[in-house]
């Protein structure tokens, strides 16, 4: 079976954590479930080969396990963790960075015309979606991972297998989400303008009306589309980015809670502490100390 061989290959190639290649292939091996960690998705296909993972985006929670995959069409702030993993049976996964340029080529192919037409006028698809991987997709992913043993062949054959994988995604259960990557005027592309602005200017005061103008949408249409894609309002999204940025700062200097709050745009230190505690499960200083202690253990291990 494809999953059996994938387990063998990933175990051989993956170091603890995530190992990535310049070609955008990622293999993961995790021996402990761990605590939920804040991260960003990237535009990615992620297949669980062994174990199980949970990913939370806004008010949506996605659980997926061996034989299932997740796709993300935008780089979104999430909280994720492997929920089933042990040294005896580690969680294993393989990922592929989804390149919009390649998706666009396939979307423009005459064979995709009916797919694009069928999507017009439908509800905005989510930015993150989960499905069971069909045998054809698992087989293509397996052939891609096999190429890790042949680096020279990977450079030539990898892009061919990548196109096959993307085509199978485009024509599969979550094709509507993946197609958004390749459509220049898609709802995800419009929302993406606002997402990128919020990432770069998260500490600034923002009005939804200004973000809607940036996305070239009416305020009401923009708000609906943004929530459909990200499972958050624009203000909630900005708060997520602010808190993640503050956490990075506090991991360096856990004593300067007030400074971290100001740096990411909070005027009230008490509000910052409340929202940080709600997001990460501990007050800012305590959480930062825990992160530093965990990092020290990893360095000495």
From TrEMBL:
InterPro entries noted in UniProt: Homeodomain-like_sf (IPR009057), HTH_AraC (IPR018060), Tscrpt_reg_HTH_AraC_N (IPR009594)
Domain of life from the UniProt record: Bacteria
GO MF terms held by the record: DNA-binding transcription factor activity; sequence-specific DNA binding
Domain HTH araC/xylS-type: 192-290
KW Transferase (keyword) present: no
SUPFAM superfamilies given in the database record: Homeodomain-like
Protein known as: AraC family transcriptional regulator
Organism: Cellulomonas cellasea DSM 20118
């Amino acid at each position: 079976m494809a999953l059996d061989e994938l387990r063998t290959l990933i175990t051989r190639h993956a170091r603890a954590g995530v190992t990535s290649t310049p070609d955008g292939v990622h293999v993961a091996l995790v021996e402990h479930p761990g605590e939920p960690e804040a991260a960003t998705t990237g535009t990615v296909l992620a297949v669980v080969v062994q174990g199980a993972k949970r990913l939370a985006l806004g008010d949506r929670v996605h659980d997926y396990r061996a034989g299932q995959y997740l796709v993300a069409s935008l780089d979104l702030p999430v909280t994720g963790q492997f929920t089933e993993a042990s040294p005896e049976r580690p969680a294993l996964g393989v990922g592929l960075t989804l390149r919009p340029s390649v998706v666009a080529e396939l979307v423009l192919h005459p064979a995709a015309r009916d797919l694009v037409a069928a999507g017009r006028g439908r509800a905005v698809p989510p930015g993150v979606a989960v499905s069971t991987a069909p045998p054809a997709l698992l087989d293509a992913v397996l052939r891609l991972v096999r190429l890790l043993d042949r680096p020279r062949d990977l450079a030539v054959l990898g892009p061919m297998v990548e196109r096959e994988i993307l085509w199978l995604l485009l024509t599969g259960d979550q094709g509507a989400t993946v197609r958004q990557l390749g459509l220049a005027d898609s709802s995800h592309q419009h929302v993406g303008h606002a997402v990128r602005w919020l990432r770069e200017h998260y500490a600034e005061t923002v009005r939804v009306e200004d973000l809607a103008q940036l996305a070239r949408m009416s305020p009401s249409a923009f708000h609906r589309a943004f929530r459909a894609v990200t499972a958050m309002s624009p203000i909630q999204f900005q708060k997520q980015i602010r808190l993640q940025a503050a956490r990075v700062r506090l991991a360096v200097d856990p004593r300067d809670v007030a400074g971290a709050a100001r740096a990411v745009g909070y005027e009230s230190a008490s509000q910052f502490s409340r929202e940080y505690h709600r997001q990460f499960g501990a007050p800012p200083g305590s959480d930062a100390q825990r992160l530093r202690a965990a990092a020290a253990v990893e360095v000495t291990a």
